[in-house]
């Protein structure tokens, strides 16, 4: 394992980001893990994330920031819950215990506090704590990335943008990882609908670092939101060699590619990407981002009238073990798509009841707090839709359409719920709902003109309600 080029104790101190350990090896490994996180890529020459995490614990078993980054990465991956996963819960506990008996810096202390808050589902307070760090240490990339992810899980679009904007002037081009700020900032701009600026900033990032998969991803979003489908297809294909190496984000970028095909009505091409890339990768990685993308693709294809055959059943094998996690509502709703698609009614019921139970006494868990007013009715709407009760689906979903943002994810990811509402309204026998469906399509056409998908739905609505 060669971590020679990474920052040692002295280098971190010189940047004003002192790490409380005397092990240069531990400092370099911390940098190596952070770098892989920012680049969305397992560096196999270092043994990837897992290899580095084992090595950092061997280099200095009591290195608090080593524990913070290891436990933190597992937490923000949302693949397991401290409620159910003893090992993860004790990793967080070990981190706080170490911090309590050591003389560490105030910045490191705040990092420990943020991880603990996040582990209890208190995303807003965790973000406040990371922002406290960034006030005094605007070049602390770990605080910036963790807060970026947590804002994303809350659908906090403006804070996600501003969090990066605030620190930009402090980052200088010679600083390690500085070019990756372009992608982070671009994503916040795009989620707050500054599409042209988002594209410009992401392209600046790609000019500096052509294999920055997060900047590629940002541009993919811009073309998706503007329905510039051919531009998007050309862009993804032209840069595939660059972004494909970022194995942690590759499947998600393929998902964006598949969305363009769905938009164009080229369903076979979308299914091909699903089979060859998205499902294959989600099965191999077990990564939550890969899993929810697979769920969403099948759901969108099915709404378009495509027969997805046994794919729901295969995907159910991947999602079913996560039924009781309830880490984020966004994940839950995607698991529900699969249990409904695979006609696994007992899992559907279990997921809903588990959420209802947690919503009764949510404590500090932000996701469980909004489960009652938001998560549960959206689950119920999906279940009604699945049963063909389109009237009820509209009644449940329509009042929530402007709050759905709170379940987290991106505008592009949440669009599946807009489409669900439109399909429910179009298929409802209720004349008022049918009119609503047409209004929603007019509204959709106004925000993203020239969308082939919208135009297809408009034609369908006209044919249905002659």
Automatic annotation (TrEMBL):
<dbReference type="InterPro" id="IPR033891">
    <property type="entry name" value="TTC38"/>
</dbReference>
<comment type="similarity">
    <text>Belongs to the TTC38 family.</text>
</comment>
<protein>
    <recommendedName>
        <fullName>Tetratricopeptide repeat protein 38</fullName>
    </recommendedName>
</protein>
<keyword id="KW-0802">TPR repeat</keyword>
<dbReference type="InterPro" id="IPR011990">
    <property type="entry name" value="TPR-like_helical_dom_sf"/>
</dbReference>
<keyword id="KW-0677">Repeat</keyword>
